[in-house]
Every structure is written in C-alpha cells, then in structure tokens.
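An example makes the point: we print one protein in full, the chain in one-letter code, the fold tokenised, without further comment:
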Amino acid sequence: MKFTAEQIAGILEGEVVGNPLAEVSTLSKIEEGTEGSLTFLANPKYEAHIYTTQATITIVNHTFVPESPLNTTMIKVADAYLAFTKLLTYYDQAMKASKVGIEEQTVISKSATYGENLYLGSFSYVGERVVLGSDVKIYPNSFIGDNVKIGNNVTVFAGAKIYSDTVIGNNCVIHSGAIIGADGFGFAPNADGSYTKVPQIGNVVLEDDVEIGASTTIDRATMGSTVIRKGVKLDNQIQIAHNVEIGENTVIAAQTGVAGSTKIGKNCIIGGQVGFAGHLTIGNNVRIQAQSGIGKNIKDNEVLQGSPSFNYGDYNKSYVHFRNLPKIVNELNDLKKKLES
C-alpha cells in the first residue's frame, strides 16, 4: 500500500515541505531509512540523521529548521512523535480491517450472535450465548467461553483464552496467550493440612479501551467481578488476582503481580516486577518504581521505591548511604579506636 506525502499530510493535518507526490510504502527508523520509507524526527538526539537518511519522507516538528539541504521530503506537524503514532494506528487499523469472515475448522455455537465484519480464525471456539459486537477480530486458536460479551472493534490475538461470563467493552485488545477469567486462587485450609477449593463464581469485566499484554492472566472474582477500568494498559506477563480493581488509565509494566482484592486507583504508573500484597488500597496518580514491594495502603500522588517500598526521595538518599556502608563502618571503627586510645 503506497501513500504520497500529500495524503499523509492530510491525515496528520501537516504541511509538506518538498515533493507532495513523494511516495512511501514502508516505515523505518531515521538512522535506517531507505528509499520508499517514512520516518520521523522527534528527539533532538537524532537530528544529525535527518541530513543523511535515505527515507523518502520524514515527519518533523513545526519548529524544526534544517541547517543544510535535505534529501527527504518533510511533513511539518505540531508534535512529530504523536503524529507518527497516529499514523501507525491508522495503518494498524487498516490492516486489521482487511480481516473479515469465518475461516474453516472453527466452532461457533448456534446460540452465539455477532455484528458486522467479524473475523474468526481457524481452530477458534465460540461458546453458547456469546455476544460479539461489530468489527471483532478473533485470530486462530482462540477460545471464547459461554456467556461472554464482547463490544465493538475488539481484537483477540491468536491463542488467547477468554473464560465464561467475561464482559469486554469496546476498542479493547487482548494479545496472544492472555487468559482472562481463570479461577481465582482460593483454597480453604483444613485441620489435617490439606486444602479445599473455594468455588470461584464471579467474572472479569474489562471496560472500554483496555489493552492486555501477551501471557497476562486476569482471574475471575470469587464473587462479584474483577474489574479493569477504562483505558487501562497491562504489559506482558502480569498476574491480576481475583476481585482486584484497577482504576482508569493506569498502566502496569511486565511481570507485576497484584494479589486478591487489592484496589489500584486511576492514572497510576507501575514499573515492572512490582509485587502487591492482597486487600490493599492504592490511591490515584501513584508512581511505583520497578521491583518495589507494596505491603500497605498508599495515599494519592505517592512516588515509591524499594521492598518494602518507601518514599522515592528517601529511598535514593538511603541508597547513597547503603553503598557507602563499608566506608562508614571503617570510619566508625577508626573513630572507636581513637576514643579508646
């Protein structure tokens, strides 16, 4: 698929500086640009590359003024990074929209209903009383359990498993290997040391504009719902336990684990490999650095690091002293000897 600079500028509401009929058919990094490719310059660190890039078209900020002649056609926009992201989204949606129809060797229940432009890949299963909206794309080897409800413009990539009674809103993306709605980790201890499984009869609810990374798992609630609010983005290999609630527009990086019944507020940013104990309340706008351990309730707007975590600034000050502990101990020993003498 080819696009001219003029067409791209129209999509991005930008200004062409150079050849409006210049054509591109692929994307590239600015330092690896080739003829026929589109790239962008947003970080001044890479500015030198615009004078040598072979990319046919380069998206730049309105404020950029070249210091020497360029071989590339520029498209000037308010924010080059956001414009390039918009273009990637446009391209991605165009590619996904091309997938339509039910392929061979699929199972779709007679009681299931679906809207326009469904794509159902081979070896996928759609259970009883499933409701699928319009423009739903379910890639091969996926499982959609009984009574699942999926909104419009949802993509379920290959190998994802969505257990029964799950509710998914509009504009969501579920990546390969994700498991939504498996049983929560509920077992009651017996007097003899064995455990009896506690039935998990709740479900999982994903609101609109949620993205779930590859191999991430979200457990169904014991009762009620595990809820992922609007706009949440979960990275790969995250574990969300039963009855957890994650607030709007919170983002969580890979390998984080959230134990049962913990409530995380909105607009939080959580680094990789963070561990949350169960039954906690985490406020809004909280920032947690990677590998932190959270064992207590957190107020709004806190910035944390460490395990167990404490204030980010205090952690950094303490870490300076920690690194100097051998030197400090030697100085104390020298001082002790002087006092004794």
